[in-house]
Amino acid sequence: MLTLSESKIGFAKLQASWPGPRVATWGAYLAVVICIGVAGGWSVRLSDDEHSTYLPALQQFEHALPRILWADYDFPGPPAALVVQTIIYTISQGSLLALRFFSLSMAIVAFFVSEKIFSEDHRPPRFGLALFMAGCFPFFLSNTFLIKQHVFAMAGLAIGYHLLTLPPSRLRALGACLALTLATLSDQMCVSFCGLLALRALFPASSPGPVAVRSRLLRMLVPAVPLAALAILLLVWGGIEPPTFRAMNAARAAVVVLNPAQWLVGLLSLGVWVFPAMKSSRRTWLFVLVLWLPCAFLVHRSHIYAPDQDFLNVISGPVSSLIRHFSRSLPVMAPLLAGVPIACGAAFLLGPDGQDRATYWLVRAYSVLYIAMMTLTPFLFERFYLLLVVPVYWLLARRLIADRKFLLAAAGQAFVVLAGIVYAWSKLSEFTF
Predict the structure, then answer these.
(1) In the structure, what pLDDT confidence band is assigned to residue 213 with cuts at 50, 70 and 90?
(2) What string of DSSP letters covers 29-97?
(3) What distances in angstroms separate CA 365 from CA 265, 371, 418, one per listed residue?
(4) Number of domains in the chain
(5) How far apart are CA 49 and CA 54, in angstroms?
(6) In the prediction, which pLDDT does 205 show?
(7) Which domain holds residue 360?
(8) 27 lies in a domain?
(9) What pTM did the predictor assign?
(10) Within a domain: residue 25?
(11) Lowest mean pLDDT among 17-21, 56-60, 280-284
């Protein structure tokens, strides 16, 4: 019969034989990606958006090489990612599979850098699930298999943000500047995150002094360069889109109208994908209850779930599809159902700060910047909030990891993981399986 000391030694050996949290997290993430990819995620068939917008833009660049169409091409967004993708497309002799593997490589880079961001709290057993949640966020995981530029932009934001969190140096500043510029010149919604980083540099935590002042100026300059680069590009275009795109898409080009319903979509995104992943106090839950009916009233007044609403004013996405499914027989239930996650998002932004006020200031500032910029977008798509939610995970990394009683938060993080896998699987099955 084993003695107590022998039992302890045996348990220690067994514990040591288990893979570490880092290996387990990477193994789980890669297993998800490989399984979805093998099941059809790497198929050469294209979605409607890829076929009608992204592939034609790549082919237009391919025909123009070695000239780069910075000023004039038939695509609504900035061209940096398209330039890189076109080079890969040309070298691979038109292989869509090569483009999908490029997206996969950029997703892995973003996951790797996100690990560096999360692991700064030095709690390996806890940051693994939060990191896994970021990698499996529905719109991030599904774009891992597409030829769209969103994952490329996400990798650039992750690299730039991580380098700016490290002790400042000229080399790190140069790397962060390059990464953020490539991200911003691939997706203009990266402007919000660059703006946040510039604002953060105005309020440093360190005490004033010659070294601190130089460091602050450097941290302000790095995110300012991408903003200036995009501004110059818009001046060259003479608008927010290239002249060719405006000429060929006169009906939908340069649609700049304030759409206040984007605030509801943004709060819904925060309420579904961020709020459950954190430990919330009873006071916060009470705040949700108080806000529920007012939020439901706003949804009702906006008509974003009305069955007869036109395309530009109806909300689209997996959460909205579920809400419509459960309220199909009684449409009046849709605002009440949608009011719950929107109230959670509002409580998340307006509720008590807790002990980490600086972090909540950053999250609130970023959310306001992002949603305010989104009000210029005519389409109410949940997937457009990819570049809001995942950066918020980075900003909240310490809060997502460090809560001592984290059982409910861990359940919320697991919910995001499972939802991401199911969404990616079902979305890709529409055109790949």
Answers:
(1) low
(2) HHHHHHHHIIIIIT-S---HHIIIIIHHHHHHHHHHTTS--SS--S-SS-SHHHHHHHHHHHHTTS-HH
(3) 17, 10, 29
(4) 1
(5) 7
(6) 58
(7) 47-429
(8) no
(9) 0.90
(10) no
(11) 17-21
